[in-house]
Specification:
about 190 residues; mainly beta; OB fold (Dihydrolipoamide Acetyltransferase, E2P); 3 domains; six-stranded antiparallel beta sheet
């Protein structure tokens, strides 16, 4: 199925140079001069090799038709990440590096979408948004709350995220795992 390159997301399986590749990183970049593009890191399904590719946002890529199943993350050990299919309760493992930079956002019991090609799991797609707790952040400077400045914070999973000044340690926030950015305060 043809898709615009600007909509590529982590976890997609795309056909590139005649082979299936799983997307492990996807970053939309809009330089000051020239057109916007997607910087994509991919891993070959068969060989396991990695490559970086740059697609213009108006280019089209072939998103492969794969079987997607809801699965639950159980645990991580020396063999990799262990998941369980929600319908059949069958367990299977995948390599720990399959998620790339999104790995810290995967938590025990989380439901994810896993793509299968010929019964073999090839990619993991996390939910669009996850809730994390701010463990450490700088105190608010008086008068700074009116501006649109952000301050650094560390989440309970060890990831650094820029948050608005009104967020304090102990607050729960919604984060986009694909971009690693603050979305909103959790309700």
């Amino acid at each position: 199925m043809k898709q615009l390159a600007g909509s590529i997301r982590i976890g997609w399986v795309i056909e590139y140079k005649g082979k299936p590749w799983t997307v492990t990183k996807a970053q939309h970049i809009k330089p000051g001069k020239g057109g916007a593009f997607m910087q994509v890191e991919m891993k070959a399904v068969e060989e396991g090799t990695k490559t970086n590719e740059r697609f213009r946002t108006e280019d089209t890529v072939e998103k492969m038709m794969v079987e997607e199943k809801d699965c639950q993350f159980l645990f991580e050990d020396a063999t990799g990440l262990t998941f369980m299919e929600c319908e059949t309760f069958e367990q299977f493992s995948m390599a720990s590096d399959i998620l790339g930079d999104s790995r810290p956002f995967l938590t025990d019991g989380m439901t994810v979408y896993i793509s299968f090609i010929d019964g073999k799991p090839v990619s993991v797609e996390l939910p669009q948004q996850v809730i994390c707790t701010v463990v450490e952040t700088e105190p608010v400077v008086k008068g700074q709350t009116a501006s649109s400045s952000y301050k650094p914070s560390i989440l309970d999973n060890g990831v650094r995220v820029m948050v608005p000044p009104f967020i304090n340690a102990g607050d729960k926030i919604v984060v986009s795992p694909s971009e690693g950015t603050y979305v909103e305060r959790a309700k």
